[in-house]
Amino acid sequence: MTPIHEDEHLLVLEKPSGLLSVPGRGPDKQDCLSKRVQAIYPEALIVHRLDQDTSGLLLMARGIEAQRRLSRLFETRQVKKRYVAVVAGHPAQTQAEQAPDEEGWRTIDGPILLDWERRPIHIIHPDGKASRSRWRVLDTGQTATLIELEPVTGRTHQLRVHMQSIGHPMLGDSLYAPPEIKALSPRLMLHAQELAFPHPFTETWMAFQTPTKWSASCPYLTI
């Protein structure tokens, strides 16, 4: 895989939808982004993950010290991530009681817990880990909405669970959308579009984008 950016300490890559970030269980789940990258950069180490069905920007470290420093940036929330998604319905209408801020952002707070009997599905539950996501509308169609999302915390499936929890699952979502919503797209309509962080060694601010041409109107997938 060809990085969008590489230097002696890190790699920034674009993961396609359908590819695992790391190996899964079983021989049929060994092909993944980390293995493909390590075939070219043997020292590359994973720092964070994207869901298999999510596309977009992913960061890898080159060496143990770079991994340690980058992991610390994630832990201290110095890494800024933004996603785009197409969701069913019109969340700005159903969430109208929550006024957006001056930039149009609204917030979802919902503790997330793994549902062990239905894993890998996660649910909103009082015993879950505190989770917060921000979202705002980019474009509105007749039956769907293009939104921008910003995870404040980094829980598994967080953005998918949070949007489903307010009644607006993502199109093409095989885990959290009902069959009629899943069927509207051949893939999960969630893309990690922006990634920004201070370089772990130089502290230079790094910012990357991989824009989409997605729309809130059918056909939803245009790339």
Describe the structure in brief.
Helix content is about 15%, strand content about 30%. With about 220 residues, it is an alpha+beta fold.
Distance between the termini: 19 Å
Q: How many distinct folded domains?
A: 1
- The unreliable regions are none
Corresponding CATH architecture: 2-Layer Sandwich
The biggest sheet amounts to:
10 strands, mixed
Averaged pLDDT: 95
Class inferred from helices and paired strands = alpha+beta
Rg, please?
18 Å
Helical stretch tally: 5
Please tally the β strands and state the result: 12
Under the CATH scheme, which class? Answer: Alpha Beta
Strand content: 25-35%
Write down the secondary-structure element order.
Answer: EEHEEHEHEEEEEHHEE
Net shape: globular
Helix content: 10-25%
